[in-house]
Each structure stands twice: as structure tokens, then as C-alpha cells.
Amino acid sequence: xxxxxxxxxxxxxxxxxxxxxxxxxxxxxxxxxxxxxxxxxxxxxxxxxxxxxxxxxxxxxxxxxxxxxxxxxxxxxxxxxxxxxxxxxxxxxxxxxxxxxxxxxxxxxxxxxxxxxxxxxxxxxxxxxxxxxxxxxxxxxxxxxxxxxxxxxxxxxxxxxxxxxxxxxxxxxxxxxxxxxxxxxxxxxxxxxxxxxxxxxxxxxxxxxxxxxxxxxxxxxxxxxxxxxxxxxxxxxxxxxxxxxxxxxxxxxxxxxxxxxxxxxxxxxxxxxxxxxxxxxxxxxxxxxxxxxxxxxxxxxxxxxxxxxxxxxx
Length: 314
Fold this sequence. Notes:
With about 325 residues, this protein is of the alpha+beta class. The chain contains 7 helices and 15 strands. It has helices at about 15-25, 30-35, 110-120, 150-160, 235-240, 290-300, 305-310, and strands spanning about 1-10, 40-45, 45, 60-65, 80-85, 90-95, 140-145, 165-175, 180-185, 190, 200, 210-215, 220-225, 265-275, 280-285. Strands 5, 6, 7, 8, 9, 12, 13, 14 and 15 form a 9-stranded mixed sheet that branches. A 4-stranded antiparallel sheet has the order 1-4-2-3. A hairpin with a 3-residue loop joins strand 5 (about 80-85) and strand 6 (about 90-95).
């Protein structure tokens, strides 16, 4: 069984098929060579060796096999626990932490830490995603709600599906947006030539992002962002699509060392949902990480930021 099917049309004469695919997908050349030898890759409908030469107009079909990932195990990794009860917990995830195990990140993830600190979590997400109701990117910091049992998980997931749960972000983007607020409604899918990226594509899944200007800093803008949908890299892709990529984003923009940013200035600062057991409205906020604060100070004329920013009270 394949996890993903990728179809590529060569736009120019190229080199070996393994080298071409390594540049056009997120997979390593050594992994692609194994798949070529196991007939998981077809060139114009036929199995070929890794050294087959690509010509303009050739069709390449890659059937990515289901990945084998080790079972998630508890690991003593520090967690910043914002709230906890018998049904759920709210965690502030730092930059650099992957949410759950996957190929290339078998351990050291948020899930490994959660299993150590809480033991039993909900099983709805499967063995590698216990308790995980929603996710954020590795280098995005912010708040996550985690379910401790299946009942809580199903009720929380339903709130994210019907948009009654709300996630609010702040980000720093390049350039000065003309309007004070706006909505980006553009479908997102896998990039057609660079499989490591997402992009706005015609046949992608509907994605809606609402934004509002908080502060203007000349050639940079501080934004409040609300997600209506939750696509992979949604805010990063949408802002790049609008020609205002997030500062520090090495994938959809560029790093900003003068501001102290080597990864995206994107932070999930507010999370709101209804408690699945009590029905109480739960609202949590998280202060901005240090690199974000540093960037704001360097952009500010007087080198300071308002207290409401440091406390996350936007």
C-alpha cells in the first residue's frame, strides 16, 4: 500500500532519475534508489534503474510506500504545562519541537514527552499521535490542547472541525500591507515541483486565513492572524502568496539574522475551546518567545515593546 502517489512531468532534459527526484521531492536520493529497485517508480509507465536518464516531457510516477515508524515511547523531555485536569492538558510548545514521531523524527517529540509526563492519552489519533487533537509546525511556537481520553478527544476534534474552537496567532511579515485587515481564501496543496513545500494550487484544499495589522514597522508588519481552516503551513503559505512572507521563514521567505530570526516569526498565542466535560469556555494565552520579542525591539524606534505584547494580551 502506498502513502502517497506523486506524478511529475519533466520540463527539461535532466540527469539520472534518482537525482531528478531527489531535487523534486522531499525524499533522499538513497531512499529513492531503493524505491526504484523495488519498482515503486515508473518512467513513462515502465520500471527503470536509478541511472535512467530523464528527457523533457517524460512522465514519472512515484508510489511512496507506507512508512515504518517505531512505536512512540515515553521520554523525559521538559514540558511547559499551562493547564491540566483529568480530561485534557494545554501545552506551550517551543520552537524546534516536532509534535509527533514520523520518518526522520522517530523520537524527541512532544508525544514522547507527553507519554512520560501523563502516561495514558487518548487513542483516537493512533499509536504515534496519542492525545494529539491539532498540530503546529516544528519551528512555530504556541499553545496546543491534548486529550487524555477518547471522549475528550472526539469532542475537542469536533470543535476544531466546526470552527467553534479558535486558534489565534501573531506573526511578523515582510513589507507594509496596504490594508489594515483582510482575508486570504486560496486553496493549498503540495507544490507541483518542490515536494518539500506546500503552495496555493488550483486543485488544493480550501484554506482561509484572516489577518489584522497590530503594528507597522516600515518594511515589516506585525499581524494578528485567525485560522478558519487548518492546512499544513497555512499561514506561512498564504502570507508568501500575498508577497508578504513571514520573517525568518527559511522555506517560504528567508532568515532575518539582523532581527535575530533564524526560523519563522510565528506564534500561536491564544487558544479558545469549550471544555469537553464541564462545558466551560476555556481561554489560554502564551507570551511571545524571546527571539520574537528581540525582533520587535530591533524594529521599534525606541527599542522597546508594549507590555501587552510581552504578556501575550493581544
